[in-house]
Design a protein that fits this description.
The protein has helices at about 1-5, 25-40, 50-75, and strands at about 15, 20-25, 85, 90-95, 100-105. It is α+β, with helices and mostly antiparallel strands. The strands form 2 sheets. Strands 3-4-5 form a 3-stranded antiparallel sheet, with no helix packed on it.
């Protein structure tokens, strides 16, 4: 019965729930609610992923998070792209201004 309810599609399209789950119809959502209840009381077993799939998902998640951390390091830069590293304050904010390399963070200048 649960599978039949979950398979009902609304001809006008479905909707997105909070958290990014798509529901094809209100009837299908009732099927999901009944399925969760039956799993909670022990009439249905929760679907389990095999160890290989769990390891793959963990690997992909860690790769994604590492990639996002790498991008976030300079994503919110307040200084122009291509600025050099300042030896005084260790910020990538040194740019050429008026013919002199000047740090936009601490004001250190090669010209004095």
């Amino acid at each position: 019965m649960v599978e039949e309810l979950k398979a009902v599609f609304d001809p006008r399209g479905g909707y997105w729930q909070a958290g990014g789950k798509f529901m094809p119809s209100i009837i299908a959502e009732l099927g999901h609610v009944i399925e969760k209840h039956m799993q909670k009381i022990g009439l249905l077993r929760k679907p389990e992923m095999d160890e290989h799939r769990k390891a793959l998902i963990d690997q992909k998640r860690s790769e994604y998070e590492a990639q996002q951390k790498q991008q976030d390091a300079f994503a919110k830069a307040d200084y122009p792209q291509g600025a050099q590293l300042c030896l005084k304050c260790s910020t990538a904010a040194v740019v050429m201004m008026d013919g002199c390399m000047t740090c936009l963070n601490c004001g250190d200048s090669k010209c004095g």
